[in-house]
Amino acid sequence: MLKKLVFFALFFASPVYLTVFAQSEIPAFDFLRVETGAKASSLAGAFDTYTDDPNAMFYNPASLSTITNNKVSAGFGKYLLDMNFGTLAYAQKYKDIGWFGIGVKYFDYGSFDRADESGTPTGETFNANDLMVSVGYGNFIYERINYGITVKYIYSGIAEYKSSAVAMDFGMQYHMPESQLSLSFGVNNLGAQLSSYINTKEKLPLDIRVGISKRLEHTPVRLNVTFSKLNESREKLIQHIKAFSIGAEFIFSDYVSARLGYDNESRQDMKLGTSLGISGFSTGLGIRFADKYVFDYSLNSLGKVGSTHRVNLGYIFN
User: Assign residue 53 a region: left if phi > 0, alpha if psi is -120 to 50, beta otherwise?
Assistant: First the structure.
């Protein structure tokens, strides 16, 4: 019992210790913060406590050790302007060693017209893209406590300028099945640049996250809340919880579910004048069919700026 108390004291004290990594400037590779996967996106990123989904490793690698069957999921999304992005996730258990996962995230910003220093078009074009490849491992202790770690290689290219980095995520989940309550803690994008675009090294978008989810008793609703960017510097203490997301999943059956989400920081950042519209809100649908295939769709509103769409198709191996 004493060991468990010490463990949880360290577990929940970690965010305080890790604030030494707080960042004040805009970091590089900010595409890492774009929501990954249609299901997670429809819940506004409140996905850290989710289980048995290969895409959950992008949020908390501890989820890997909850995979029941080998699973793969591929996704595609349309972002603003002509930007496209895609994801791929695969997870499985390997003998008694533990659970392993592979994740890929890709961003294509399209083609741009090149101009000289005076702004005169040169007639040439250039491309810009980002790529992240990750390998993760997960296992559990005390049966209810999952842990995981992910190692990532990150690449970004803009015309002839290139940059790369290595980073890691680590996280933990605590599940209480009798009360259908789950807690999570994670540190994402802890690492450094290997090479910079020109001569200045930049920080990565370090993200300390805490999540909680609860299946409401006698209802088909699962509520999820995630607090992210807890490490970032804020003017006021209360602003440390500005970056929070709330997601609600309505589980009608093992085959159909609907989702709603709210991203508080996104809503505040997308404010144009006095109008907020429905920015920061998201919705989606999940369908499982033929017992092997999973389809997910999400729509995320950015208010007057526009909206984004994502689709994922997953396969469950027997």
Answer: beta
- For 95-130, how does the pLDDT look when each residue is reduced to its tens digit (9 = 90+)? 999 999 999 999 999 888 888 888 888 889 999 999
Identify which of 297, 259, 268, 262 has the alpha carbon closest to the alpha carbon of residue 281. 262
CATH code, 284: 2.40.160.60
Q: Model confidence over 182-230: pLDDT tens digits?
A: 999 999 999 999 999 888 888 999 999 999 999 999 999 999 999 999 9
Question: Which amino acid is located at 264 in the chain?
Answer: N
- What total of structural domains would you count in the chain? 1
Q: What's the pTM value of the predicted model, to 2 decimals? A: 0.86
CA distance 310 to 29: 21
d(CA 140, CA 273): 49
Q: Which candidate, 269, 259, 263, places its Cα nearest to that of 298?
A: 259
State the residue range of the domain holding 310: 2-316
Q: Report the DSSP pairing between strands 71-78 and 293-301.
A: unpaired
**Amino acid making up residue 288:** R
